Amino acid sequence: MIVIDRIRINGFRSIRTLQMPLGRTTVLLGANNCGKSTVLKALELALSDETSVQKEDFHMDAVGTFAKELWVDVRFVPINPQSNRLSMFPDQWQKEFAGLIRRDHYRREYMAFRTVFTRHDNGVITKARYEILHWDAARLGEAIDVLPHAIQFVSIDAEENLREDLKNEKSFVSLTVNELSTVLKKHPDYGVKPIEDLKAMLDSLSQTLEGPGTGLPQGVALTADNIEAFFSLVKSDSEKIIPFSVLQGKGSQKSVAILSIVVLVDLLAKHAQLSQKPLFMLIAAEEPEIHLHPNAQRALMTRLKSLSHQCVVSTHSPYVASVSEPHEFRSMLRVGEDIRVQWLPQNIDPMETRVIKRLILRFRAEVLFATGLIFVEGVTEEQLIRGMFQAYFGEDPSTYGISIIGVDGKSYAPFLMLALSLKKPFCVISDNDGDARHVVLKQLSDTERRVHSRAQDNQSGVFFLSPGLAIEGELVYKTGLKREIYDALWACNGSTNTSPKSKHLQYERMMALAPRDLKRKLEKKKAEYSGFLGEIIAQNPYNQSVDNMLPIAVRKAFEQISLWLGKTKKDSETETVSYT
């Protein structure tokens, strides 16, 4: 088994220069215009001759000058089924890569090459490939005229169109269908044999993509002849296929294209296995979630990972991310003219991996796509901080791409590791009762040490409520939210007696509560009151000043967030809260 473990890109579109490690599965994250699609297209340029480049594909510098050259380096290495790197290529690949295999300073084998596009003064763009003799020094060797046939690049585009792929003679779909036709001409007896395992897989995937009850027609055996006939029908643009709804809706078109690629990938893999030939397939999927419902997104990602030898996916979907492994993420960020790539430590142990998957990826994968993060203890704080954010900034945090995440207690460590590793700015707003301060700061310092990154270097920090207080005590003793608290408690009272006199009496009793009793009442209601109170704070019906409604720690956190958003920092009479 082989994979591409490194890629280098120079002078291609928005990427001036970029190096990135790849795994068997790599999930590219990041905002628009950070280079995700460019990485996928760079892999295609390196591994396929399907597409060409134009002048606009060469990197343009700050003064508007296009580069004269762009190139992409890829390095193949042998791995075992557990994705651990091996020292030598298997015999099949030794023959396939004959003369191209080199060794690194650890005496481990690799095969690497560079694909170069040069823009000449007369406007002509030429393409060439060269073997890389020394990866670290990027020293080139002889030209490579033809890539090994065993290397296959499979593209799944956000707006996949099966007909367009079939019309492109160099596309994976077109080349594979032609190869299928050639094999059937040589071995016509193969064409009528049912492919039961492929049929079962397609029926399952079809139901996930299109809904219950869908699948291949009953009573029709899936054979190579049927597959060839289907692609011929689609390619011919015949009116016979127009009435079928599967090729009319955008979502259904995408489903048909994906199912077709699955068929061809499976057939190609079976052919290689039966003929005992080496085969490497890299599936590059750009936003495969488009036009698919959440369950279909999860199922498709799982299927792509199982089908390919290597899979690189760009996505904005938390559902795609939820079925990925923490070490598979690559977060891309544009900083000026440069693009930086961040990832989680590769040495995290299985226990930490399980915690990240359970606490973050399963239910809170939006953390991966946020531009900034606010971490709090739980649901109560989530709802309160959201209302306070709206009162302070005038907008919901989602407007700015900021996610508020409750960590269900004081288990901040996995969230801190993810934020620090991926260079996402964050604020922790924590209670300050018991040993909370010690526990949170220790988690932060331990995580900073592990990932070699400091929170304050990324405009991040921890902000504590008043000493000895949890959120309910802070609301009662340290803010001017008395009327708002009464209104929230009244809203969640749940009394069936709705007479005006009864309401007035109950409200008066609440107004007469001592602060200690009011705090206890809030503690009993917890998440029930916080939703109402968060909405009341956002609406500010009593026209209070923001400083009167927000705890000092929350104001300080929001001042920090103002720096992320490029807003003017609010004036405050209080000193900055220290978290070091």
Automatic annotation (TrEMBL):
Residues 368-433 form the OLD protein-like TOPRIM domain. Residues 4-116 form the Endonuclease GajA/Old nuclease/RecF-like AAA domain. InterPro entries: AAA_GajA/Old/RecF-like, ATPase_AAA_core, Bact_Antivir_Def_Nuclease, P-loop_NTPase, TOPRIM_OLD. This is AAA family ATPase. It comes from the Bacteria. SUPFAM superfamilies: P-loop containing nucleoside triphosphate hydrolases. Residues 188-320 form the ATPase AAA-type core domain.
